[in-house]
Fold this protein.
Amino acid sequence: MLKPSFTRYAAALGASLMLTLPIAAHAHRAFLLPSTTMAENAGAVVTFDSSATEELFLPEHAVPLGTVTVDGPGHARPQPENTWNGKQRSSFELKLPEAGTYRISLFNDSLNAMYKVDGQMKRWRGDADSFAREVPADAQDLNVMQMQGRNETFVRVGDHAGKTEWTTSGKGIEMTPLSSPVELLVGDTTSLRFTLNGKPAGDLAVTVIRGGNRYRDALGEITLKTDHDGKVSIKWPAAGMYWIGASTGRPPHGETGTLAKPLVRASYSATLEVLQP
Amino acid sequence: MRIRYSFMLGAALTTPAFAADINIKVEIPQLNVAEYHKPYVALWIENGDQAFVRNLAIWYDIKKRNDAGTKWLKDVRQWWRKSGRDLKMPVDGISGATRAPGVHEVSFGGAKYDLNSLPAGQYTLVAEAAREAGGREVVRVPFQWPPKAAQSAQAKGDHELGAISVQLKP
């Protein structure tokens, strides 16, 4: 019998969309939120919203739809449809053609620069192409940072997880669930493995927050550290939609990057749903 | 919330009831979180009906350019509903910068904060903390005003605030 091969689809939706992420995005939590994590039938349509917020999962600042990659069960290549780019959120729909588990990943790889012209501090955001056009060649005190942001979620179609192995790209932070990431129950323990540029991300701080923090006083965040192999285990304390975040953090103060060798900040989030048993 | 009273009686009972000071110790706990910002903290006084009476302090990002730090004052939710939204920031004697984890002792003179005109009765010191990318907590410490003797009361928060203690001096 032929084993189903993984399909990956990458949709580059235009670099111009990358300009909308706020500069102060570090104070916000970026997410990709599915309208459901469990669709009943093959061919179901699921909506995905992408935003960055302090009140999970209420949209505040849109995260642009850089590259959307779907890693799913069959041979089909679901393409984002009805894409929409607002100020507060970006959205798209996917028609999921086969039963099994899909990983939906949004990756934004962009450049930030700070520099001075005539003593005035300027901020710029774009990519390597627009850098040459938009940043003056005589810019002073230039500092270039590459931002690799990945926001993911998982959706299952039908009753069975199907495959639970996932491909990796080797770019920035990635996460592989070591068991099914869908239909998680309160009291269950889920193990996740993180990589940074394809290598195990040991000693990485992973933050777990249940959505709906607007409606409670204590944020109740769970702070974990990955082991040397990049693994971390989460025991789910309550039902809800969860945000799992990790970041390499801001580079140390005083370091500067150039276009050829920028400072790099990689960040990651996954949205996972936990149900009442 | 634990509440503890201790009254030191025998102090000069003849002191006029219309001049007293409030000393408050505010503990901001050290937190082990991935992203920490110093909390916004409001201190105010309510009467026995939980109605707003006086502001004592609001600690926020006062130095941010173009007064941008005022944007998150509304996250100090109870204070915002009871008083904050009616104020034009900064308020002299009330506004202050955010403070680091630790115990902060602050004094409020009865004359300067117009406490001496308050009718005698039961009041509550309310401390509320709200932290960017974090949680929020309100701690209430009841006290009698004006103090006939030196008096202290204390309550303790669980996550965003530590011990809050109130010392009154006639």
Summary: Residues 23 and 110 of chain A are 12 Å apart (CA to CA).
